[in-house]
Records
---
Amino acid sequence: MDREDACKNRLEAMTQFQIDGQLMREEPYGHGHINDTFLLTFLQRDENILRVILQRMNHEVFKNPAQLMENIWNVTSFLKKKIMELGGDPKRETLHVIETKDGSSFYVDSSGYYWRAYLFVEDTTSFDTVQSPEDFYESGVAFGKFQNMLSEYPAETLHETIIGFHDTKARFQKFQEVVKADPMGRGALVKKEIEFVKERSKIAEILGRMQACGELPLRVTHNDTKLNNVLLDNKTRKAICVIDLDTVMPGLAVNDFGDSIRFGASTGAEDERDLSKIECDLQLFEFYTKGFIEGCKGKLTKKELEMLPMGAKVMTFECGMRFLTDYLEGDVYFKIHREGQNLDRCRTQLKLVADMEKKWEELKDIVNKYK
C-alpha cells in the first residue's frame, strides 16, 4: 500500500469511532513493529484535550483480528469491574477500547484493513530497557496483579490468537526438522548451538507435561511480558497499566514470569555479540520475583511458585531455539537489520540458559524467600 492510500484508509477509519471533538493533530506513535500506531489529538466541545491511540492491526501476524478483539474486549471488561471493586480508575488502569459508531470493538475499512482505537493513558511512560531495579520490580507487580485480577476468568473461553505460541515441544520438533533439512546450508556453522539445544531436549517437554496432568493450571496469560508493555506513572513511577493485549490467551503463569526474566534480567542486549557481557542478573531476578509474587497476592498455586525458575529457563531456551531455527531457515520470521543478527540473538539466549543452570540453587532460593 502506498502512502496516499494508507492516509486515505486512516482518515476513513478515524471517523468511524465514537470520538467527540475536532481533530487537531495526528502523528505516528511508539516503536512497535507489528501494528501501525498513531496518536490522535482532539479538541472537545468543552475545550478539553482528548488523546486517542488508533491502530491498524496486522492481520498477517494475527490471522483473525475479530477473535483477537473479542479477547481484548472481554478481558478488559472483566478487568474494569475488578478495578472498580478495588476503587481504582478503569480508564487508567486497563486499556479502554473505544467502540465504533455501530457498537463494534473494531472497524474494517474499504480496503479490508482492521482498525481499533484506545483512550490514551495520560501522564505515563513505558521503557524499552530496565532503567532501575525499582522499575523492574514495578513491572513484576503489574504482571502479578494482572494474574491476580484475572484468576477467576475462564481462560479456556479465550481464542488462541497465535496457535501454539508457547508450545515448546512443537517448537523443538520444528527445530529438529529444520536442522535435518538445513535449507540454507548454515548447519555446519552452528554445530555447537545445535548440540546445546539437542542436549536439553527434555526442557521442551517439562511444562507441557505438567499442564497435561493438571499440575499447572491453565490461566489467562499476557504472553509478551516485556517491561515496555507496562505503563509507569510519571509522578509516582508506580505501575499503572498493562498494555499490548494482542497475545492475551490461555497459557501458563510461569511462562509469563519467565519471559519477563528472559528479557529484563539479562545484563546485555538481546543481540549482543560479546557473550562475556551476558548473564542472568540475580538482583534484577529478585526484584522482579518479589514484585510478581506480591502482585499475585496468593493466587498462584504452590507448584506454580515452585516452577517460576523453570518458567524463566524454558522461555529463554524456547526463544533461543526459535532464533536458531529462523537463522537456519534464512531469517524468514524475525526481522534482522544486519547479517547474523538472529544467530547473535540465539547465542545470548543460550548463554542465559547456561548461566541460569549455574545459578539454579540461587534462583530457587530467591523464589522461596518470597513465596
---
Amino acid sequence: MGINVLDYPPLIIDYAGARLAGVDEVGRGPLVGSVVAAAVILDPANPIDGLTDSKKLTARKRETLDTLIRERALAFSVAEADAAEVDQLNIYHATHLAMRRAIDGLAPAAEYLLVDGNRLPGHALPGQAVVKGDARHAAIAAASILAKVARDAQMVSLDMRYPEYGFARHKGYPTKEHLAALAVHGPLAEHRRSFAPVQRQLAL
C-alpha cells in the first residue's frame, strides 16, 4: 500500500505561514489523451490519513482519498493540456502548462508551491521542486491522487467509445496490448502524434 508521507522527515520550508499548494501531474508517458495536473492546499486543521504517492495505492483507495481531499482541502484544482497541446509544445512544456493551469484554478490562491519533480513549472509564485515529492509531502501526494483519478476516468470514458483499444486496462501507456491495437486499428484523434509509436503508425 506504499509508505505514508508521515513516515518521511518533514521538508524544510522557508515560507512560513503561507498557503502551501502541492502540485503534481499524471500522464507524461501515455500515447493518448491529456496530461493532467492537480494542485491542492490542504487544511492543517482537517488532516487526511493515508496520503502517499498515487501509484502505490489501489484504484479503490485512490478514489476514497480523492473524495476526502475534495471534501477537506482548503482548495483544489485539476487541469490538463490535451493531446494537441502535447504535440504542439512537447510533453515537458505541456506538463508545465497543465500545472500552471491547476495552480491558477485554486481559490483561495496559493502563496507557495511544492512541485513534484526537479523543475518548477514557470509560475510567478515562489516554490520548491521536490524530487519524489509525492512520497514526502502530503499536499503533493494529494495532488498526485486527484490527477491520477481524473486521468484514469478519462481513459475509462475513452474505453467506452473505443473498447477495441483497451484504454480502461492500460490507461494509454504503450503496453503490448495498446501497440497491437494501434497496429490493427490505427491512431485515434486523441493519440499524441509526436510520440514515436504513433508516428510510426501514421507513416504506414
